[in-house]
Design brief:
Strand order of the largest sheet: 5-4-3-8-9-11-10
Structural class: alpha/beta
Distance between the termini: 38 Å
CATH class: Alpha Beta
Largest sheet: 7 strands, mixed
CATH architecture: 3-Layer(aba) Sandwich
Radius of gyration: 15 Å
CATH topology: Rossmann fold
Number of helices: 5
Number of domains: 1
Length: 192
């Protein structure tokens, strides 16, 4: 596999490749971490509305759609990433995919305040949120704070996060449901 592609590891599109533009700080979630995450989520991903923040390669979101998620909203502020997400969605025939080229914090404020229109319907909250910002950005804590203030996450929903393994994690009232480590990466599921 070339450097700028990842393979979907389960579900309807198992084995299909996602191609993406290289970008500074872009680290697609490794296959073994995705496998662990989707084992944790289990059948709960089926029928879920998912939000992939800092979507980058789209590995997490497309994996969710492949495994039966009802819809996916992918948000990334990088033009090339958004174009790759749209292209991969078209290649896979992902009809319940919405790609927003927008800063994540601005998107979260807008979603909490007004909702966002997806396939012509106003959407204000999601069942599962993937939160994988660039490690050195400091955006994880800011995004968790915004998610904690609003109703963007459904009451029984979960947030998946990735951070540098030894970085301090400000949970701001979130509870760790599951947690793991792989190399320099710390990952887990949070709930309110």
């Amino acid at each position: 596999m070339t450097r700028n592609q990842v393979r979907i590891i389960g579900g309807l599109w198992k084995g299909r490749k996602l191609r993406f533009a290289a970008g500074a700080g872009l680290r697609p979630t490794p296959a073994r971490v995705r496998e662990t995450l989707f084992n944790w989520l289990g059948p709960g991903i089926e029928g879920a509305d998912c939000l992939d923040l800092f979507a980058g390669s789209g590995a997490l979101g497309f994996e969710a759609l492949s495994r039966g998620a009802r819809s996916l909203t992918s948000v990334d502020n990088d033009r090339r990433a958004a174009e790759s997400l749209r292209g991969n969605g078209a290649q896979l025939g992902a009809v319940r995919l919405t790609v927003r080229k927008q800063g994540v914090l601005a998107f979260l404020r807008q979603a909490a305040r007004d909702g966002v229109f997806i396939h012509g319907e106003p959407v204000r909250n999601w069942d599962c949120i993937f939160l994988d910002p660039p490690f050195a950005s400091g955006l994880l804590a800011q995004a968790l704070a915004l998610l904690g203030e609003g109703t963007v996450l459904k009451p029984d929903g979960r947030v998946y996060f990735e951070s540098r393994r030894n970085a301090p994690l400000d949970l701001q009232g979130w509870q760790i449901d599951r947690e793991g480590h792989a190399g320099d990466c710390r990952f887990g599921l949070l709930r309110r």
